[in-house]
Write a structure and sequence with these properties.
Elements (H helix, E strand, L loop, with lengths): L4 E12 L2 E12 L3 E5 L6 H9 L6 E6 L2 E2 L10 E5 L10 H11 L7 H11 L15 H13 L5 E5 L7 H18 L2 E6 L2 H7 L2 E6 L2 E6 L1 H6 L4 H6 L4 E11 L2 E6 L3 E6 L9 E6 L5 E3 L10 E12 L3 E7 L5 E7 L15 E6 L5 E4 L14
Parallel strand pairs: 3-8, 3-9, 6-7, 7-8
Antiparallel strand pairs: 1-2, 1-4, 4-5, 9-10, 11-12, 11-14, 12-13, 14-20, 15-19, 16-17, 16-19, 17-18
């Protein structure tokens, strides 16, 4: 454990009957970072948060908070606070009294409470809202009051369980930016739970991608997106085109992979792969482009034949849905730079090449290929 570690989870496990909701989970959380637990429903992220908060007891493992084990410490004695999706504000209390409630319970000197409450309101940019009732606030304002109520207690770690999930899209995006600013200004450790990949990418210093109670990958958003550790991560964080094939040759860390009915492609190698092994090649839709049959993206790049099935205009981008050489679905995303009425790209039914630069791809051992598994609705 490093000196900057504020929370250390070691071998954390939680079972409910025969179900392992959290399975041998080990993680170091750095002081002052914004760390997100990301994964589909049922992956164990909320259970992990509840274990840290003390709302659930672990079946095995340790929770070390500020250097002290707290697995046996009751929730109200742990130096953490939780912000939930449901704001749980007291409807009959003013904003001031909602925020002051925890300080009163902790029996802080009465003369200190107004300063602490006003400081918390300043943190969340709600100066002047002290006398309002929750029903007089918008959803975003109520969420900020809940955030202020948690921050006012000066927790070592602030736990946020999908706190923006009840907001509409535009308010949610605005609150993401507000939350990012608040985190930067207050310098506290935020541990955030979400199933929204875009939200995790927007907010986080690091992302922990979870599946079946275990960690699939931990890293900065750019690393998780550009170099996913597993096919699950590649599919869950964004979207991905996959091609399965066999390694024909290796040269300087570059694999030449033979694809059924599509010739060969070249891709940066992954650990432990040898000539003759089956691999799964992945490439993000926005890293690809459409070319006339026989053309590639650049010298030394890759291409596979495909047929356009749908052309979908989505404002800033055009999404092409295609059928690949083995009837596998493919996607290509291109910037929409011309008005729709001037569109002169390929139409449904057109034969094209899906092309991408060599370095845009990545690969996995074929044993990791779980293409039939639904990544958005795990039990």
């Amino acid at each position: 454990m490093g000196d900057d570690t504020v929370l250390f989870l070691e071998g954390l496990t939680k079972t409910f009957g025969k179900v392992r909701a959290v399975d041998n989970f080990t993680l170091q959380v750095r002081r002052g970072e914004f760390l997100s637990l990301l994964g589909p429903s049922g992956c164990g992220k909320t259970t992990t948060l509840r274990l840290i908060a003390g709302f659930e007891g672990p079946s095995a493992g340790q929770i070390i908070l500020e250097g002290q084990p707290v697995a046996a410490v009751p929730p109200f004695r742990r130096n953490v606070n939780t912000v939930f999706q449901q704001y749980a504000l007291f409807p009959h209390l003013t904003v001031f009294d909602n925020i002051a409630f925890g300080l009163t319970v902790r029996r802080l000197p009465p003369e200190d409470i107004p300063r602490r409450v006003l400081d918390a309101l300043h943190m969340v940019r709600l100066n002047g809202y002290e006398a309002r009732l929750p029903r007089q606030l918008s959803g975003g304002e109520q969420q900020r009051v809940a955030l202020a109520r948690a921050l006012v207690n000066d927790p070592a770690v602030l736990l946020l369980d999908e706190p923006l999930g009840a907001l509409d899209l535009q308010v949610r995006r605005h609150m993401q930016m507000e939350l990012k600013k608040i985190h930067r200004e207050v310098g506290r450790t935020f541990l955030y739970v979400t199933h929204d990949q875009e939200e995790a990418m927007t907010l986080s210093d690091r992302i922990v991608v979870m599946r079946h109670g275990r960690i699939e990958q931990v890293g900065p958003p750019l690393e998780v997106y550009e170099r996913p550790a597993t096919p699950f991560v590649a599919r869950f964080v964004g979207t991905c085109n996959f091609f399965e094939g066999r390694v024909q040759a290796q040269d300087g860390g570059i694999l030449e992979v033979e694809l059924p009915s599509a010739g060969s492609v070249r891709v940066p190698g992954c650990g432990g792969i040898r000539t003759g092994d089956r691999v799964l090649v992945g490439v993000r839709p926005e890293k690809t482009c459409l070319k006339p049959p026989g053309q590639v993206a650049e010298p030394g790049g890759n291409s596979v034949p495909a047929q356009v099935e749908e052309v979908v205009f989505q404002g800033t981008v055009i999404r092409y849905v295609l059928r690949g050489p083995t009837d596998a679905p493919l996607e290509v995303v291109a910037m929409s730079t011309l008005p729709v009425q001037h569109y002169d790209g390929p139409e449904p039914g057109a034969k094209v090449n899906v092309a991408w630069p060599l370095r845009a791809g990545f690969c996995f051992p074929a044993g990791q290929a779980l293409l039939s598994e639904n990544v958005t609705d795990e039990a």
